[in-house]
Amino acid sequence: MITNVTSPNYGPRKSEEGKAPKIDMLVIHYTGMMPTIRARDWLCDPASQVSAHYLLGEDGTTWRMVSEKDRAWHAGVGYWRGCRDINSRSIGVELSNPGHDYGYRDFPEAQIESLIGLAQDIFTRHPIPAHNVVAHSDIATDRKIDPGERFPWARLGEAGVGLWPEFSTPVEPAALLNDAPLVALSEIGYDTKRQAIRTVVSAFQRRFRSACFDGELDEETKMRVAQVNSLVAASCSSA
């Protein structure tokens, strides 16, 4: 069940080169504040200048705050796969969680179940490929770290929401791109030209190697970059 709580913080989606706006991204955030009702009020406050299409409480309660046809203000300055106006082509979902500054904790199962169900429902309306289901930290590597290393990306991947490689499976040598991890990170979608490489690597690790997100391109991280890049290539070819 979804409850409507309308936020005034939205606008029209912007088109690119005269084309009709397309919705092909799902961006997942955490609120970074508690309780949930405070986050809900903030996302509905005109003074905040922020919003999201959906907010999910820790108990799984789901609020629709901005219509999917409209441009919510959730992504800010970002980049993914050549696009910088993320808000115009994405659906933004906020998960209630205190965040790293206020007692970061695991995301409850009820909340994740609601997220999976919501995402699957969104996919029936919008052609969002698996490689465009992203963390806020993926698109804003220099500014954001949410939803963070505790977020269960593997659980979502099992449900068909986003990408999650089987990391125990060896990568074909050709997929290693001649040991060019920065090229692979760029092909995955990250901004490797304008952002510091350490922050890009850390964002990748926080998403795909949550036990270590020190920003170092060690051999384990390089292997995982190659594995994810291989999966993205397959996702793009089938999109």
**Total tally of structural domains:** 2
- Unreliable stretches (pLDDT < 50, length at least 5) are none
Order of helices and strands: EEEHEEEEHEHHHHH
Distance between the termini: 30 Å
The main sheet orders its strands as 1-5-4-7-3-8
What is the mean pLDDT? 93
Approximately what portion of the residues adopt beta-strand conformation? 5-15%
Q: Count every beta strand, where a strand is a DSSP E run of 2 or more residues.
A: 8
CATH topology of the largest domain: Lysozyme-like
Helix content: 25-40%
Please count the helical segments: 7
Structure characterization notes:
The protein is an alpha/beta fold and 239 residues long. The chain has 2 domains: 1-12 and 21-164, 3-Layer(aba) Sandwich (Lysozyme-like); 165-239, Orthogonal Bundle (Muramoyl-pentapeptide Carboxypeptidase, domain 1). It contains 7 helices and 8 strands. The strands form 2 sheets. A 6-stranded mixed sheet has the order 1-5-4-7-3-8. It has a two-stranded antiparallel sheet with strand order 2-6. The mean pLDDT is 93.
